[in-house]
Write a structure and sequence with these properties.
There is one protein chain. Helix 5 packs across helix 6 (94-100). 44% of the residues lie in helices and 10% in strands. Mean pLDDT is 84; it is low at 1-30. The two termini are 18 Å apart. The protein has helices spanning 3-13, 34-48, 54-67, 70-82, 84-92, 94-100, 134-137, 142-145, 147-155, 157-163, 200-204, and strands at residues 111-115, 120-125, 173-178, 184-188. The strands form 2 sheets. It has a two-stranded parallel sheet. Strands 2-3 form a two-stranded parallel sheet.
Length: 225
């Protein structure tokens, strides 16, 4: 399962993040959902009243898009694949090891890292809301917060990951981890074969957001060329 499928799931849910064009915000040309229109209207009112600084909003968005996001998690995974000592520390105390690479903050105070192996596949869900390790994965995707995913991931994890394109042998054990505000989880996927001698930069390019949640697998080396 790659990122493309996750985008398709969001499309089916009817809540994609459309491209916004100032020239097409009127009703007949807008692709914004009802919720997004309400958010935009609220933002406009708050800015007009001087209660919110547009620059501050832009800074927050930029932080989560460029500084806090799956690329951070990919760096963590790539480093673990390359450095056995770091991997051991990561599995022992995820949050502490992740801070070694400079990633931390809200949502990252307590992170447990669970490792996929040939016989075990891990899947992360938050059954109560949408608890998520923000410093290493950024903002949670829409489908992660949806009620169907939150319920079915526990009841039928094999069926859920199959819908994302992940088909595992019947004897593979699937472990489901329920994230909470006290403990959030990050999946350490298996390193793809044929990547011996690769730099951490090349390895990080194989790591997708979904494979760190458990709804995907790392890209094959050929796909990253």
């Amino acid at each position: 399962m790659h990122e493309d499928h996750a985008e398709a799931v969001r499309d089916v849910s009817g809540e994609p993040r459309p491209h916004q064009n100032a020239e097409h915000d009127h009703d007949h040309g807008s692709e914004l959902s009802e919720v997004e229109l309400r958010v935009r209207a609220l933002e406009t009112v708050l800015v007009a009243k001087g209660l919110v600084d547009p620059a501050a909003l832009d800074a927050i968005v930029e932080t989560y898009e460029t500084k806090v996001g799956p690329r951070n998690g990919a760096q963590v995974v790539a480093h673990a694949w390359s450095d056995p000592a770091f991997k051991a520390r990561l599995l022992e105390d995820g949050a502490k090891a992740i801070r070694e690479l400079g990633y931390g903050g809200r949502g990252g105070e307590h992170i447990a890292v669970v490792e996929n192996t040939a016989g075990i596949h891990n899947l992360v869900v938050c059954t109560l809301c949408s608890c998520y390790p923000w410093p290493v994965l950024g903002l949670p995707p829409v489908w992660y917060k949806s009620a169907p995913y939150r319920s079915r991931a526990v009841i039928d994890p094999r069926g859920v990951i199959a819908e994302f394109g992940v088909h595992l042998p019947e004897d593979t054990e699937i472990r489901v981890w329920d994230s909470t505000s006290e403990m959030r989880y990050l999946v350490l996927p298996m390193r793809p074969a044929g990547t011996e001698g690769w730099s951490e930069e090349r390895l990080a390019a194989l790591v997708t957001r979904d494979c760190m949640i458990g709804t995907g697998l790392p890209l094959w080396p050929d796909a990253a060329q």
